[in-house]
Amino acid sequence: MYTLRMTAFALLGCLSLSGCGNSTPSSSSDPAEEPTTFIGKAVKEATDGAKEELATKNLDLDVTGQPGAEITPAGDFLIDGKPVTLNTEQKALMLEYRGHLAKIADAGIGVGIEGADLAGKAMREAIRGVFTGETDQIDKKIEAEAEGVRQSAQELCTLLPAMKITQDKLAAMLPEFKPYATMDDGDVKDCMTDNDSHYDAGKEIGSQIGQAIKGDASGHGDTMNAAEEAEAASTKQ
Predict the structure, then answer these.
(1) In terms of DSSP H, where are the helices of 54-137?
(2) CA torsion angle for 138, 143, 145, 150 (degrees, to 10)?
(3) In sequence order, what are the beta bridge partners of 61?
(4) Is the pTM above the cut of 0.70?
(5) Does residue 106 surpass a pLDDT of 70?
């Protein structure tokens, strides 16, 4: 079974990418989707190279007990570096399967960038909450942002059934590929289950951070009041 995770790096590791490809990988260049925090921008910059490799490098398929296999951008299937003879239909399916994997990896990178940007926003809101006294709004704002990441992860999970259909067709048609067709129905189900579990855990952690920040803010109440009084006094002068 594949072990699918809802972050870019974990997804790339799961798919064993030394670079994987699709002639037309999906794009996340929409300005509305660009990260707005330092953390999000840093992660995007780090993953832009991986997105470029999706179109140009071989996709590695690593299965325990089996020799390494690769799918080239042209749809050739290599086992232990040696090409497997494919007919026209088999090659078309191989390209289709590679496209599914590349699309999932690309979507995973997008979710990872969104998650990193969310972390940056959480830090920004926490600091802002302490200095404005609006700590009660921190967890609400972060939860609203987190819902968007969750939806993106759910959309990623919806890509799996189509990939499994192509995988099963290819495995039935090409015996050499069958040992590498390790995705099953449980993986599709686990994707959504893991996504919900990670979301709930994230909400709990976010809530705890918010509560801790509220406590710190209340503990510094005298200091904040003194600052407010000083500012008020200065405006009267």
Answers:
(1) 88-132
(2) 160
(3) 69
(4) no
(5) yes
Q: How far apart are CA 91 and CA 89, in angstroms?
A: 5
Rounded to a whole number of angstroms, the distance between the first and last alpha carbons of the chain is 71
Element (H, E) at 177: none
DSSP string, 30-49: -GGGS--SHHHHHHHHHHHH
Return the SS3 of 136. Answer: helix
Domain ranges, ordered by start, for the chain:
8-236
* pLDDT greater at residue 5 or residue 50: 50
Q: What is the chain's Cα-based Rg?
A: 23
For 150-184, letters b (16+ CB in 10 Å) and e give bebbbebbebbeebbebbebbbeebeebeebbebe
Distances (CA, A) of 86 to 83, 151, 172, 175, 214: 9, 38, 13, 11, 63
Q: Which two tokens stand for residue 161?
A: 């059934």
- 181-208 per-position pLDDT tens digit: 999 988 878 876 755 544 554 445 444 5
Quickly count: other Cβ atoms within 10 Å of residue 222's Cβ. Answer: 8
For 107, the token pair is: 């979507």
- Confirm if 126 and 213 have CB atoms less than 8 A apart: yes
In whole angstroms, what is the distance from residue 145 CA to residue 217 CA?
Answer: 23
